Amino acid sequence: MLGRLESSEGMMRDMDTKKILNKLDYYRIYMILAVIFILMCLFAPNFFNTFNIINILKGMSLNAMVAVGFTVVMICGQLDLSIGSNLTLGAMVVIGLQPTLGWFPSLIVAVLAGSLVGAINGFLVAKAKIHSFIVTLGTMTIVQGLIFLISKGSALSVNDFTLADWLEAPLFGLFPPRVIITVSIVLIFFVLVKYTKFGKGFYLVGGNKETAWLAGLNTDLYLILAFILSGTTAALGGALLAMSISSAVPTLGVSSQMVVIAATIIGGTSMAGGTGDIFRSMIAVLMLVVLFNGLMCLGAGYEVQIFASGLVLAAVVLGESYALYEQDKVKGQRPALMAELKKGAL
Amino acid sequence: MFKKSLALLMMGALSISLLSGCGGAKTPAPAETTETTAPAATTTGGDAGDNLTKSLAVDVSTLKSSDNQPLLLKTEAKEIPARPEDPKALPEEDPLHWYDLEYSGWSAEKVNIPKSPADGSIGKKVTLIVHGDHPYVTAYIKGAQQVATAYGMELNVMSPNFNVDVQNQLVDQAINAKPDMIVEIPTDAKVAVQQFRKINQAGIPLIAANTLPEDEGMKYVIGWAGPDDWGQMRMLAKTFAEKMNFEGGYTITQHAPGGSPYFSRTYGIVTELKKIAPKMKLLDAQAPGFEAEKTMQLTSDWITKFGPELKGIMAADDSAQQIGINEACKNAKREDIIRIAAGNSKVGMDAVKAGTVTAITYQSAEADGAVVLKMAADWFNGVEVEPVRYLPKHIITAADVEQYMPAQW
Fold this sequence. Notes:
Structural class of chain A: mainly alpha
CATH architecture of chain A: Orthogonal Bundle
Number of helices of chain A: 15
Number of helices of chain B: 13
CATH topology of the largest domain in chain B: Rossmann fold
Oligomer: heterodimer
């Protein structure tokens, strides 16, 4: 009797430890951000002040916006390589049309352009059943080529800085409007995808498409909507950045792509689909920007920043692989029975 | 519940740091007057007068670059013609069509330029924001560092690796660090306008370098220092025309689109040849990037397409592009094609020595970096600084290539 009681207590301790470890794994991105932030505050000169924190938030805005749609695509178990091109498309369209249409209409057109590219991606993936890697690789090349063809490789600019100044100047000394817009979009879609019945459908589609279909979900529609969202948020992010600097270059989105993919994975979204979190993707983007900014304050070059972010990605991926390995080891086993056998209670 | 609490805690920490901000660097407000005083001198040791005397006494004329040339070459003046009413209305083959690009900065009305503290350069902090990582830039930084060390200035280098968004963030970071001066090589001539404006509004003195920004951006800078690319291309075009007997078809492999060298290294050649060798015909101009493989493919396509009509090729880059061009000519057994290039890398100079390239421009990367830091030191010393400071021009041929060895990059 005493033996059984002791083995039960041991089982409870094991399960509590596992729960804690799972929680820690779930919140790892917050912990990584906190650690990096604290270290930079302590050691990086000129890091911890209002102006630099605002810079960090502004630096996060572009990729955090792009990561919204990209995360949803990955939750559905797909990939969108055209985000960089869509971002550039949004930027070039808004600046290119501004002299004719004004800011707001040109922003609408820019966002719709990104949505159109996303719709094409979604349609080809969902209806034509072409792998998303191939489809989006194609649209990435086509869109980028079109941009270069029309702009002849040149940048576009407008000599009106009124909107740029408004977007960049912090409101009440805190958050610039561009950051507020970005965080608002992130929060809206975070709540929509995570906490509404409709939004949870994305997880079902990504987790098991057949089961989702059998459950009555229109899986093709979900895929198309995911890609449309990805194209829309990428174009919106690019347009906002272009508006904040009153110019756009044809190579704007080239490096954003890799940062967004890395951040989404670091944030806990699985490439296999079915899991992910828009808010955590934003936190991951913020973490990378804090890291880059801090390293720059420490005098490290660009190559060190790339190396450091690669290390973080590698560490996160290895950690996840190890967690999956541990999970696989106990798959099918009854934890309570295994614990008892270990203790020799039977 | 735990997650929400953690998220709230993080946001609270972020907000507290925003409000408290140790170090307290405030967002700089746009200046209201047209002139401001530069940030207080960060000199160490001795008073300002002593600092000024010492730094005025610094002699940098004896400094040498790694190719045994004087590091600080005698800068050249340039004749500035009158601006046509509408340069864009002129044909592209007319040099005045490119007036605003070539003579950028000469007629800009300066805005909010800080006054020099005239207290010497010793101890001054200068932030140099380059456009990207490249062997030329490495040599550039080396030259800049030499002059900075001679004048007792502290040089901090930042590189965005040709990424416009990253350079924007670096500009913000540089403003945050409040150096005594910022020197910037823009990644893009148009994007530079807003970057320069921000630095100017922060009250930090700014010198633009190497590649020319749009004319609109020049009103925010103390001055610009770098190579007279347009002038160099005209000299190179003369050598090209002589070698081609003032006739025949030619092509151009262009620089990266968007920057000032893209225009200068194409239209500097085209406009000059139109004037001095009207029988020479531009067959094609394309930008293959700085990849030997792509350039080789492009050149092979030209050789196939134009055949014997193609008599000469101009390369905007004498290293990677030139390798591709030479390889294609060799493979097609067209060593008769006259080749010229911009730049004086080791690859380019070896090619001139070997006879595969007729002429290249002498553009000392180290001198390029040195001249801008000299301009900064002059400004700190209260010496009047001209709006544009050009490096001298020279064309390297087989006759004098040995004088410029070993190559800087």
